[in-house]
Amino acid sequence: MSLSEKHSVRSDSHVSSSVSLKSDRSKGDFPPDFSERKPSSDKSVRSDSHVSSSVSLKSDDSNKGDPPNFSERKPSSDKRLQYETLDSDVQTHRKHESFTDNLLWIFQDLEIKIITFLKKELEKFKKILQNENTENLVKDFNENRCSTKAAALDLTLHYLREMKKDEAADALEDELLFIHQLKCGLKKKYQCVFEGIAKQGDSTLLNNIYTDLYITQGGSEQVNTEHEVRQIEVASRRHESQEIQVECRNLFEAPEQEEEIRTVLTKGVAGIGKSVSVQKFVLDWAEGKENQDIRLLFPLPFREMNLMKKEKLSLMDLITQFFPETKGLNLTRRNNFKVLFILDGLDECRLPLKFDHNETWSDVSSPASLDVLLTNLMKGNLLPSALIWITTRPAAASKIPPDCIDRLTEIRGFNDAQKEEYFKKRFTDQNQANTIIDHVKKSKSLFIMCHIPVFCWISATVLQNILEEKRNNDVKINQADEISKTQQESNTEDTPKTLTQMYTHFLRFQIQQSHRKYDGEYTADVSWDKDSILSLGKLAFHQLERNNLIFYDTDLEACGIDVYKASVYSGMCTQIFKEETGITLGTMYCFVHLSIQEFIAALYAHLFLDINKTNVFVHESKGQENKNKNLFKTRYAHPFRDINKKNKIMIDFLKTAVDKALESDSGHLDLFLRFLLGLSLQSNRRLLRGLLTQQDDNDQSNKRIVQYIKLKLEDNLPAERSINLFYCLNELNDQTLVKEIQTQLSKGSLSSGDLSPAQWSALVFVLLTSEEELEEFELQKFKKSDECLVRLSAVIKTSRRALLNNCNLTDKSCPALAAVLGSDTNLKELNMNNNKLQDSGVKLLCTGLKNIKCKLEILSLSWCYMTEEGCSALTSALNSNPSHLRELNLSWNKLGDSGVKNLSDLLMNPQFKLEKLHLSECSITEKQSVILTSALKSNPSHLRELNLSRNNLGDSGVKNLSDLLMNPQFKLEKLQLEYCYMTEEGCSALTSALNSNPSHLRELNLSRNKLGDSGVKNLSDLLMNPQFKLEKLHLNRCRITEKQCVILTSALKSNPSHLRELDLSRNKLGDSGVKNLSDLLMNPQFKLEKLHLLNCGITDVSSLTQSLTNSKALQFLKDLDLRKNKIGDSKQRLRDVLRDSNCVLRVD
């Protein structure tokens, strides 16, 4: 029976059509609006009347949240029979009027209840679509779902689609079915976090411990030449002020005037917090806290998708496998809804990702290879409206073509304050927390590593355990026998100061925890399972060679590892299962952090040597081995002449490891080498007693390998490799080279004498690891030479300002400097003034300047012997990368016609937003000045300082400039026109222009120009303008007379409150001129700080002395220059007055 049939009754008592669910309104374009009429509160209806279309919402049941209870008046079996045979019963039993009346009342009440229930449900559905209290309404619907509520939803969806309102139907279905279930599942999965080792750590609510990580916009796009630990060291020296910080929750918010962001790539070294950031983002969405404009969110880790790489499946199949609750979801009907896919761990992807070769795929329902699906999803062919967030380690970022990325971000981990915050949160005992913080800070290498959250956990685990062991030993030491005393000494001899010591203690602790967890016992001594560690080490070593962090069953089996044992042994390997679909997709393994894998790999290499008496690197070609042996014999015959065979095997082993690490272009073996060398120390091997062979004559081999490393440092290695070798020396407890350089630095003796390559490398290491921030690098402090610049280019790269002026530099140093400019550098200011670079050197610099990575803001190339050829190359480079430079100094170079023309073209570029331009003594002519000012007129809004001093502009050139100054968009603050061959005609034009646009200029230099009477008069009129707020005025050698000085000072008296510097040197002011200035100083509003009156024909300064004595001028005056004036006896009185002030008096 249809709904309309169920509602039909006799014609004399029918239900009004306005209540019927198949009313005329249902045929329209919009759903019925039940709020059009205010419902009546009267429930009584006469038996012969129509049922009111305005049904009360205030019936007894209307305020209950439950559906109507039809069992309140349970009909008898006779009445049930009557209902079933309604028509015949009414015909044969008309005499039973009470039955008819009762039936009518029942259906009237039934109608009220149904409509009331439906109205309430529809109102909830409407609020859900309007995003009003959505979370609670959806939660209530799902938690209190029953057949009647489901029926109401089915009816609503059916009629919305019949009305062609598919978008509303899809949105409602998403919110009530797919989205709620998806959020519930994600919340359950992501709300807890396991710190470090999931098998051993207690789970903690993520929201209780999460600390925001430092995320920046942009990042390196170059090929990595450094180990990730070294990248952390470099990043730790960057200035936060020069970076754009991005909050994780705002990744897809586009800055103003930028296009919409579809795809975000977030980089970060291993363990820096990428996956935890993803976890927090997902949890905040699932809990309804952030990014609620995103309707569907699907985290798809690459490590889990690797297990499906051979399958063919559609995008919908892929989603369903990870999120079974979305079965039945139709994404093609949801183009207007935001859908986010999070592809976590690109570096773990074992798919080829053939962006250029894969076929185009756009159908979400058609099966294809996983590689085709993912590349088309990222390119925007498949579900183009979807948002994509990809996370990766830096080395794998290049797998994604740049044109597929809209925003690049980088997670930098903990800053220094967050490191301390972590330890204070980690320990309830704040004294213990502070002890650990103090210890970590004492070791530069440990403190830098704490940028990585996982390393903070490792350090906290180790140091807490050591502190507890020491406390226990203090109690038990008197009861211990000699053997256990020795063991305790090895356990607690020193808190770790190097990475090797930290990781060795960490391994010991994990083995002890393993025994406690799986064997039910704990002992201070360590019982090593050498076979298991060998197998695990083999896995670590060979996968490190392949640069793999994620392993699968086949990888373990190839190393002879029992899969079950690997998942529990010592907690060093974490096993992850994915079982959300009811079937296990597969098992993946990884070390807790890359550094742990590198430590275990180094340990394996030592174990392999101990057991097999063979170098683990023996697979190298025989030819290379012979080459190494010959090199060894030739260069190191003397150091190794008398060592025994056992030591020689160890030295060969370590030497080969050094060579192998130095051969790596990416530096991926750098940390492995640190661990390998650190484990050769007897002090560290004692901690591994029972696992590694103890060597009595170990010191001999250590001395030999230290010598070998120092000789390697003489080979002019790249900075990245030499820096790591110094860290290796630190692991070997040798700081002789470093201390030697530190001594020379403290004595200031580096500028004299030649340094060896090893000493240069030591200097770089000392500067890069110093506690002081490298805000500024000044080459003159070291040695004025091309060699010094080239050697210290790695230091320049980390500095913000490089002051290389007056250092005898030539074009030989420019390639190294260009490499710095074209890299991911901190450099924002480069001063190369007064160096003979010539055009050849400038051209070499341009290769770096035009690189998009170059973000230089200040470039000074004054007096660099540049001609129009070099200027043209420079302006071309800046035109190709125009958006960063703010200050350019090309003074004292002969730019020529073509140079000025190309510079003018650059100034016209709307992306070139130069604020300061210095072109003093550039041989600019009147004709060239016309071209220059014309360019500035076309792009006038950015320039704030202009220096055209010492150019033959003449009055016509100044007039052209004056036209520019009248432009209200031209907001110049500093104008220098010293020695420009200007006369009173040009000065009058200039002052007139400034009078028409007076509010911006703060500094004016007209020195060495013949201003004349009218020029000084017009200038004085300008100074009287209350809108003209000049702070610095330079009129040196302008032939100002005593009479003109009276006019000038009079003007300043009328507008005295702004001027701070006044230079009237080399003008014949005489004593009367000084008297007028002295009267001006008496004005309490005149707050002059610098007054220069050098060589002004002054013989008496009594008036000046009196003014300074009787006014507040000395509260402000800081610099008074009266040199080359024959002031005689009045000089002493002036000195007496100024003695106790802050003013510096300069007299002959």
From TrEMBL:
GO molecular function: ATP binding
Domain NACHT span(s) in chain numbering: 262-396
Predominant location: cytoplasm
Keywords attached to this entry: ATP-binding, Cytoplasm, Leucine-rich repeat, Nucleotide-binding, Repeat
Lineage: superkingdom: Eukaryota
Basic and acidic residues bias (residue ranges): 1-13, 22-49, 71-82
Annotated compartments: Cytoplasm
Gene Ontology CC annotations of this record: cytoplasm
SMART domains assigned: FISNA, LRR_BAC, LRR_CC, LRR_RI
Region called Disordered, residue ranges: 1-82
Protein name, per record: NACHT domain-containing protein
Protein's organism: Culter alburnus
Lineage: Eukaryota, Metazoa, Chordata, Craniata, Vertebrata
